[in-house]
Amino acid sequence: MEKNGDTLPGRSEKNRTRFWRSEYLPGVLFLDGTFLDMKFTRHSHETYAFGVIESGALAFRYRGEDVVASEGMLGMVVPGEVHDGHPALGRGWRYRMAYADPESVRTLTGEPGGKDRGLPFIGRGALESRELAALFRRLIGGLQAGTMDRLTASSLWTAFISELFGRFGEYPAAAPRTSRGSVRAACAFLRENMTRNISLDELAALSSLSPWHFLRTFRDETGLPPHAYLTQLRVRKAERLLRAGHSPSMAAAEAGFADQSHLTRWFRRIVGATPAAFLKEMSPAGARHSRSEGENGHGQ
């Protein structure tokens, strides 16, 4: 049975992380992590990311601001928002994170009567709430200790999400922009052709924009230049392939990387571990309702 404590499992003396899941909350991936000198490159998540900083301080660039989440604070990233991550003021950090499927969050935050307001949004990357931090810790601790039943776990998770978005969330109405359609088409093209050697001219022609205008528009919309966006797509595909049991070399080829070493370099910068380490730690853990998904993992 898993126990949570100050010392987290891992090979590295500096950066140690562990992913795990609970069958009680199938739409959530949890992470216990310690990072003393890790610097995550700019990236985004397909999920919501919530967490509590247990010690130290995490700094990251988020939505045009330099954010610092220190001990006791909640860290927050919404799907698709580009950010990085590194120690604040030369210090490392330890945190507990939850990566939640957007559709599950949408369901939990829907209005009575089933009205769909879309995906909720929180603009701030660091939040202060002792009550929410305590609720999150209670959920994590109970799941890891194996002392929590399904009803309690789902109730605490629902209470956390509802209170978090009820207090800090919003549903902004996005103003339509003519550039959005062309960027969306380019993103879809990159997803469908990630193994190809795509040129900027090709993407610009697809969007009916000059290469310079397309480059500026794409970065304004996605937060990343096209080549970095494509690299992230390839890393996320490789991650899914590794989860399915494919070897790192096969994942590299299928995701469009030149070779395994190229995958390894970028996988570590975005996910926080080598593909081989990530794959090795995918075996079930001994807990009744949780399992390990990586000694090193997703990262900030």
Automatic annotation (TrEMBL):
Indicate yes or no for the key word Phosphoprotein: no
Keyword list, A-Z? DNA-binding, Transcription, Transcription regulation
Q: Which domain of life is it from?
A: Bacteria
Task: Pinpoint the HTH araC/xylS-type domain residues.
Answer: 184-281
Region annotation (Disordered) maps to: 281-300
What Pfam families does the record tag this protein with? AraC_binding (PF02311), HTH_18 (PF12833)
Keyword Flavoprotein among record annotations: no
Q: Name one GO molecular function term.
A: DNA-binding transcription factor activity
Q: Where is the composition biased (Basic and acidic residues)?
A: 290-300
Protein's recorded name = AraC family transcriptional regulator
* High-level lineage: Bacteria, Thermotogati, Synergistota, Synergistia, Synergistales
